[in-house]
Amino acid sequence: MADQRSAHRVTVRLRASYRSSQTVIEGWVQDLSRLGLFLRADHADAAGARGTIDLELPQGAPLRLPGEVVRVVTGGEAGMAIRFGELPDEARRPLANFMIESSFQARADQ
Q1: Mind listing the domains of the chain with CATH numbers?
Q2: Whole-model pTM?
């Protein structure tokens, strides 16, 4: 099956917290793009739920990103795919810079 994603993804391992009106979920971001992320966690919110993600980048303050759960995965690769909403200006640039640095690092490691 072809990959239908429209944005470049980088493989990462970053701590993150997801918060909605129903739950708080701690986990690890497995991959990240300018449009969203996949949060590996033992628990998940329901598809369609909206919340915020506090993403811990290696440098700087955590980013607070709005998002919507678009897919829930159960089993061994449990987690949830979250599509970002409108990113605030103070989060957009640090996120983009981190993704560029991670892409360069991944190429250098190959």
Answers
A1: 10-109 (2.40.10.220)
A2: 0.87
